[in-house]
Amino acid sequence: MLPESLGGLAAMAGLLGLCIGSFLNVVIHRLPKIMEQEWQAQCADLRGESPSTAAQLTLSTPRSRCPTCGHQITAMENIPLISYLLLKGKCSSCSASISLRYPTIELITGLLSAYTAWHFGPSPQCVGALLLVWSLIALAAIDFDTQLLPDNITLPLLWLGLGFNLANTYVDTPAAVAGAMAGYLALWTVFWLFKLATGKEGMGYGDFKLLAALGAWLGWQMLPTIILLSSVVGAVVGISLIVIARRGRNVPIPFGPYLAAAGAIALFWGPQLTRSYLGLIV
Fold first, then answer.
1. What secondary structure does DSSP assign to 100-166, as a single string?
2. Which one of 4, 21, 113, 172 counts the least CB within 10 Å of its CB?
3. 245-264 residue pLDDT tens
4. Residue 253 · residue 237 · CB < 8 Å
5. Phi, psi of 97 (to 5 degrees)
6. What share of the chain is helix, strand, coil (3-state, %, to 5)?
């Protein structure tokens, strides 16, 4: 495909990514709260209590509001990146600061979407890669905030990866199925070995499911690269937080963001990285 055509596709994907990034901000903020509502409702049901009459939060309702003054965000105040710049990072009603998280997520999603389109071109691989990248961004941010990797995202992501690979989109079907199984069992085994050795839980079950999903998308062959990348980055960041930020050793550090980052890197450059470290070993 001509570079000019790829550039146009990347530009369109980047604009779409900005809009998706705005939606991901809603998912990142609201999905953990929705999950908490569901847990509270289940607990109330087990206790034989009447269900709460409070309005249920969803991804679409109620409309977004300023957390400080309650001002309802208008459509013109919700244009990705542009609105933040025009408002100078402040609420139009009370001038409270708007978190830098929102434009950052939008920008990252836009840039990664543009690169995905450039990398894969107009193909089924591009469509699937966009869905994978968007999901990984949401999972990384949610885990960073709450140390949760919601089943609402990880499990559909796993099945979606297997579905794409029914047509050998990224790897053949046996490699995808083996990747899902091996991804889950790899971290499940580490979890139990660590717990038996220390009596503590070193990671959550969401990490198993996320690695299983990445295995379903990229195949079992890519799992060593993903685990190595995520472990190295996690170790560097963890040590930095302890030494520089004076973070306590007993404060848990979410592993999901590093798995997500490693999965994205493997999606784009996995074979090259695998050949490189195998060359070093051999």
1. THHHHHHHHHHHHHHHHHHHH-SSHHHHHHHHHHHHHHHHHHHHHHHS---HHHHHHHHHHHHHHGG
2. 4
3. 566 556 667 889 999 999 99
4. yes
5. -65, 140
6. 70, 0, 25
CA-CA distance, 276 to 221, in Å (whole number)?
14
- What is the C-alpha separation between 23 and 21, in angstroms, rounded? 5
Q: Per the structure block, which two tokens stand in for 154?
A: 């990880």
Looking at residue 245, what is its pLDDT? 59
- CB-CB contact of 149 with 184 (8 Å): no
Q: Name the pTM for this structure.
A: 0.92
**Assigned token pair, 50:** 């009447």
| 66-122 pLDDT, tens digit each | 888 888 888 888 899 999 999 889 988 898 898 999 999 999 999 999 999 999 999
Tokens for 25, please give them: 């901000």
